[in-house]
Amino acid sequence: MAEATGALPTGLGIGWRSEIAGVVSAIDALGFTEVIAESLAPADPPRGVADLRGRGVPVVPHGVRLSLGGTDALDAGRVTHLAACAAALGAPLVSEHVAFVRAGGRDAGHLLPLPRSREALDVLVANVARTQAELDVPLALEPVAALFDWPDDEYTEGEFLTALLDRTGALLLLDVANVHANAVNRGQDPEAVLESFPLDRIAYVHVAGGAEHDGLHHDTHTAAVPDAVLGLLSALVDRLPAPPAVMLERDGHYPPAAALHAELAAIRSATAPARRGPAVRGSGPAGRGPAARGSGSFTGAPLTDRQTVLVANLVAGGPRPPAVDPGRLDATRRALLRKRAGLAAVEWPLLAASYGDRWASVFARHRDGCEPVGALRDGWDVARSVDDLGPGAARELAERESALRYDGRSTPLPRLRTRVRRRLRI
């Protein structure tokens, strides 16, 4: 494939997913696309991705598992894989998240927020530098949507991002839907939050839809982009000297092609600015430095301890982190379980369908407090645990059991999935 040109994405894009590959390939004047790096085999990319790249559509590998903000050692294999994805696709850049995924040897299976502290900033800078050393293209970093905040932030989000990008030279992947979700959940003005971000460092922009659970706004990527997010996108464009590249994210509950095209048209309309303003640097009022904004028994604890306790609470039934809102932690844990249930439903469609709308609650009842072991194995353990399997689900389990003996621990997930699918011809 062609080598990277170094030019950043332009125009309107959509995230490539196998479920909507046909829709994506048929979009006229597609500016760019993005593929989840962890789903990609660099030596053998999906045909739809290869076809788009062959047509000259830039493809951006988007990482979700590096855990750049984690104090656990950065996984060298994951960094190498991300770099290989970029090289194989001739990507103009790659992207990852301002978050952590693993701590204390446990994997949360989800992007978790960092305390905005000097220590967390130092960890991020070191891990970003380690990643950049292996990349031949720029790295863009995406701030995540968070259902809770740590109690003793030393920076505002804008200050933290500005310092991170200044120290690393990285670019900003700005998810407007994340800004909206965080502002709603924190009781903030989203436009004021935007103005505090280093907008002159934007590489490209994400937009997506969400859902309400537990009285909070969740960034789910499973619904249409709401008017509030489109309005915030317009407000962003009006603050920039030129419209940025904007990409629609959709991960599940895929609508008909006409609905996706309507969403793209709405995004295109929102990026037609009514006015032009200067690029906003925005790191807070001039001269403002970091200042403590909270207290609690967890204040001052090493970052590695804080992350380890948090992940253990969310996925292994461990004690709550002190001074972190317990209601928000419970909402986060339930959100992680819903996400795992959705992924397991893809691997176990008959099992999930047999419970209908109750699937998420059935999954949570059997997997709450159990560490994530991958969607295939999560579903396998649920199927073995329930006592009311329907005929289809029972047949599905029997087929899996006949294809491969599985003790729930010993077989690595990628090899297990490959062997099962080969035996079952799926």
Automatic annotation (TrEMBL):
Highest taxon above the source species: Bacteria
Pfam families reported for this sequence: MbnB_TglH_ChrH, SCO6045_C
Region of interest: Disordered: 273-302
Listed Low complexity bias regions: 273-296
SCO6045-like C-terminal domain residues: 305-387
NCBIfam families cross-referenced by the UniProt entry: PRK05409.1
Protein name: DUF692 domain-containing protein
Organism expressing this protein natively: Pseudonocardia abyssalis
